[in-house]
Structure prediction request, 464 residues.
Amino acid sequence: MSVFVAVQSDDFCLASEYHELRRNAACGAVVTFSGLVRELNDTALYGMTLEHYPGMTEQALIDIAKQAQQRWPLGAVRIIHRVGTLKPIEQIVFVGIASAHRAAAFAACEFIMDYLKNRAPFWKKEHTANGEYWVDAKASDQQALTRWE
Amino acid sequence: MSVFVAVQSDDFCLASEYHELRRNAACGAVVTFSGLVRELNDTALYGMTLEHYPGMTEQALIDIAKQAQQRWPLGAVRIIHRVGTLKPIEQIVFVGIASAHRAAAFAACEFIMDYLKNRAPFWKKEHTANGEYWVDAKASDQQALTRWE
Amino acid sequence: MIKILFFAALRERLDCEQYLLNSDGQTMPVTDILEQLKSLSDNWQHELSRSDLLCAVNQQLVPLHTTVKDGDELAFFPPVTGG
Amino acid sequence: MIKILFFAALRERLDCEQYLLNSDGQTMPVTDILEQLKSLSDNWQHELSRSDLLCAVNQQLVPLHTTVKDGDELAFFPPVTGG
Prediction:
């Protein structure tokens, strides 16, 4: 099992990540999740700033990847999270899984996103037409964890 | 909601598909599944031939995409399935979903793969060191449907 | 006339890709057509008796008791293995 | 000495990124440290009383009753919103 984790201000390239995930010839299933900066319902979004806790973020992502690895048979896990200032429709986060089994690949990818949303120390501040606001944590993200308990 | 379906002998490009899926600015979540020709446990695999029922395959994939659309709020669904002769580690199938919500994107992508595996008229014949064999349907694929009923 | 198609392992075992059945303008259940086809030979009898046989009428999966009519496209095939 | 870090909305509201606490070599629960910090001002009292306050010791999420010792890195922050 290979684990790759990165916290970076640079953008990432889905095609390169996929290329890495495909290296294991025993893995017939590759699932990817990409999270993008999306429009707001009520006001114009100019962009957002992602703050993080340097050092702890990388550690938290590795921990989450290892938990996934203990639950499902995985060939490779890649997690990238961006920090700094992002514009609308830019990429924020990538999680990619390679496995011999598609059910394991889907479950591990969703598990990692659910845990990342609740446990990895990142915080979003939105820059909108109405001012700057720290994003509130969503109850639905906390709720999502219950299915894995 | 946009639906794109293709049955083709040509390879596909994940980066191009992702580019299309990202067009909808309201969709912050993109999930992709890629199925690859993988090694066999017991013998060398030289490649496989994918037979299909022309006309019905496209129709079946559109039906499956529409069922997913009725269950979850989706921005875009893209399904590509290759036919003809494929070599090891080549791409077989792609399913990509864009949605405002990651849970919907994950569920729809897995739902489509589960239905495709049981309802879309494709058949694999493996070319191995021991001869040519039609692949047997797996009970686990049929079992996977029960969670959506 | 009803066009009957066979796919994959079934096509190979029957050594038949397409079979045209004169339906005399009648509608009939797929099960009746299956009985006619099974009477062609022991091999057809055996292959078309498999419990996992799938059937499509006009490119839609249907149960074997479905009725078909003149001009319909009927297809038989083994469990699908794509994806 | 215990290094205490604050992040995101909490950092802004306290107007404090880092606070060094002289622990006199003692071990103590995070709850005791919180009480000391709350006594600094009404604002600190208010901000550090939030029920959703999260705490990490040496970069691991921990409950507030966890004990810290000299040289530990302690951090307080609001619910995370990455991904």
The radius of gyration of chain A is 16 Å. The first strand of chain A starts at residue 2 and ends at 8. Chain A has four helices and eight strands. The longest helix of chain A spans residues 102-119.
